Q: What sequence folds into this?
């Protein structure tokens, strides 16, 4: 069988090491040299000729994280790697997936074009902001689902009278996956924005009186929507409110908002490292899921078999 090589970008070493440990294969030797003017040059210090190469790098800000991934892919392609997979636990710019106003870019498509142009043969990622982003690529996309991690965790918690909630209309499908699996109700927090990252109005659609509510979303950025939804749900009679958000972007004043909110717990994945510790934030590991997905890709086995049937 063709040899597997796992490499980490500098921003995802904490994650890549865990993935490699679960896979049972050490990370490959790659160094990123920085020039005095800020330019970078990844150097792969071992042969990758004919190998299955996996580059692990989340593309959250700064933009150098994306550029580093592109340059690593190019280096492997020029070194005659047999098959290159970009493992992108958090796919940055995924929220810019359409023209929602005149004269704006569809940035997620541009990023897809860049990754393909660099030489990637396959993409592996988790919880895209919209499933349709897979269609921006003309190469295979393995779209992993965090339900495979969250559902076993929730089963261990043994919560009573659970209701799942979507913090906005766009996330209903994601929340419904959990409500169907646990056979419990679903409510919606309908929000209206006047501008990006600022919620003007929010209404709860459904009854949450006496319930343990779990908000479900793909990411948490400024935490404004999440905290406002938690506060309103408590006002509507919810017994407790937790939130599950795969990608902890947590920009601006997010940590303070979460600390001062009615949220009992925010459960996130390790696709992005936390900037600071928080008593309310619990991090679940995705390393085992990614390692199994990498193995199944290499061995030409099913990726969907790794998901929890909702």
A:
């Amino acid at each position: 069988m063709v040899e597997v090589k796992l490499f980490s970008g500098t921003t995802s070493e904490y994650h890549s090491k865990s993935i490699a440990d679960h896979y049972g294969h050490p990370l490959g030797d790659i160094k990123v040299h920085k020039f005095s003017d800020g330019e970078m040059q990844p150097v792969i210090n071992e042969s990758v000729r004919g190998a299955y190469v996996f580059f692990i790098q989340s593309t959250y800000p700064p933009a150098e994280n994306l550029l580093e991934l592109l340059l690593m892919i190019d280096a492997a392609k020029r070194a005659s790697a047999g098959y290159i997979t970009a493992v992108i636990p958090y796919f940055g710019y995924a929220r810019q997936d359409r023209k929602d106003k005149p004269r704006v870019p569809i940035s997620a498509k541009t990023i897809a074009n860049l990754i393909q142009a660099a030489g990637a043969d396959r993409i592996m990622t988790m919880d895209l902001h919209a499933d349709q982003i897979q269609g921006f690529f003309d190469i295979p996309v393995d779209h992993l689902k965090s339900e495979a991690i969250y559902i076993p965790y929730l089963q261990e918690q043994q919560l009573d009278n659970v209701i799942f909630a979507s913090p906005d209309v766009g996330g209903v499908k994601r929340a419904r996956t959990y409500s169907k699996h646990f056979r419990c109700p679903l409510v919606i927090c309908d929000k209206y924005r006047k501008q990006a990252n600022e919620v003007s109005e929010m209404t709860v659609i459904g009854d949450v009186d006496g319930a343990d509510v779990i908000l479900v979303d793909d990411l948490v950025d400024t935490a404004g929507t999440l905290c406002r939804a938690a506060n309103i749900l408590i006002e509507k009679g919810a017994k407790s409110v937790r939130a599950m958000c795969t990608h902890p972007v947590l920009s601006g004043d997010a940590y303070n908002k979460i600390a001062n909110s009615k949220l009992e717990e925010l459960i996130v994945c390790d696709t992005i490292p936390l900037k600071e510790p928080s008593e309310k934030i619990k991090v679940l590991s995705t390393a085992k899921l990614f390692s199994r997905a990498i193995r199944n890709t290499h061995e030409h086995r099913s990726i969907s078999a790794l998901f929890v049937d909702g």
Notes: The two ends are 34 Å apart (CA to CA). The helical segments are 13-23, 64-78, 107-118, 147-157, 172-182, 224-235, 254-259, 287-298. The first helix runs from residue 13 to 23. The domain at 147-284 is CATH 3.40.50.2020 (Rossmann fold).
